[in-house]
Design goal:
alpha/beta; Rossmann fold; Helix Hairpins; 2 domains; 20% strand
Length: 326
């Protein structure tokens, strides 16, 4: 991994931060102290404020009240959804050389810009081609290189799994595991998150945040257990009440959103389907990195992988959505 700049003991403090857009509450009196070398994953349904949170931390959006106090030694490396701006007439290698001539690694050794680009899968031929000739995915990969090359000590990655191909994601995973700095990643990709973060900040909507001390898989398992406990408690409560009161209670909770029978069945199916899709994804990844596939097989696997990532993303979102109401 690239050497992170020196990082002091103060990272950032969120102090009484509140933010809303009309009726949509993003944060309400949010307080948090980010630790040295912490790696946080951010998850939640669309529209719960994940990207707004990042933009407030980066100083791009102002909170309604409160503040983010960032330590003096912090150097952010920010991979955003819309931060892709290059001079299309430049060569790939020149774009990167404008930032640094050499890249210092964590162990003190150095890489030339060309070696660094090679590590991120830009062949010497690609390095000397013009930016406008790159595919969309290659441009995102180049953008990632420009973020990592600035020797940041705090990486903030907003939905990197949406744009980067699977091979680049593998390189990024390895990079983040070795990175000696702080990390915040926003993503729905459970497989990626499990490998790179040590805890989650779950955006549950309307300003409610839950700090979960584990990875995405552990969070889902915990959530399933919580749902079982809640169901059992509800049943016990109903058994204690007199029938008349139970009837009243049922009437009063009708106004709350409950899952229909069809939605309950869908949730159960998702619980079974998502692990299967993820197992297939892991299998394909293993095959792709084995070095035994022909070019045609690689292309075929790569195409299937793209479909799988989208499907896992979509199903995980739906799972999150439905599980909020169980």
């Amino acid at each position: 991994g690239v050497k992170a700049s020196y990082i002091g003991s103060k990272i950032f403090d969120a102090k009484h931060v509140s933010k809303r857009f009309d009726d949509l509450k993003i944060l309400e009196d949010f307080n948090y102290t980010f630790s040295r070398f912490e790696k946080m994953g951010i998850v939640g349904n669309n529209g719960t404020g994940k990207s707004t949170f990042i933009k407030m931390l980066m100083g791009e959006v102002a909170p309604d009240s409160g503040e983010f106090e960032v330590g003096e030694t912090i150097r952010f490396g920010y991979y955003s959804q819309d931060g892709l701006q290059f001079d299309e007439q430049m060569k790939v290698i020149d774009v990167v050389q404008d930032i640094a001539e050499v890249v210092t690694l964590g162990d003190g050794s150095t890489l030339s810009v060309s070696q660094f680009l090679n590590h991120f899968l830009f062949t010497p031929e690609k390095q000397h081609s013009y930016v406008h000739k790159l595919s969309g995915g290659e441009k995102r990969r180049l953008y990632l290189c420009t973020v990592l090359m600035r020797n940041p000590n705090f990486l903030v990655l907003d939905e990197p799994t949406n744009d980067l191909d699977i091979v680049t994601l593998n390189v990024l995973e390895e990079y983040l595991r070795e990175f000696k700095g702080c990390v915040i990643v926003v993503s729905h990709d459970r497989y990626f998150m499990d490998k790179v973060v040590d805890h989650l900040m779950v955006f549950r909507g309307q300003g409610v945040l839950k700090d979960f001390p584990g990875n995405y898989t552990q969070y889902r398992e915990w959530k399933e257990v919580q749902e079982l406990i809640e169901k059992e408690e509800q049943q016990k409560l109903q058994e204690k009440e007199a029938p008349k009161q139970v009837y009243k209670q049922d009437r009063s909770t009708e106004t709350k959103k409950k899952l229909s029978f069809k939605e309950q069945r869908e949730l159960k199916e998702l619980d079974e389907l998502i692990p299967k899709l993820e197992a297939e994804k892991a299998e394909i990844e293993e095959a792709m990195s084995s070095g035994t596939l022909s070019t045609d097989e690689l292309l075929e696997k790569s195409a299937r992988m793209t479909v799988l990532i989208d499907e896992i993303d979509e199903k995980s979102m739906r799972w999150l959505e439905l599980s909020e109401y169980v």
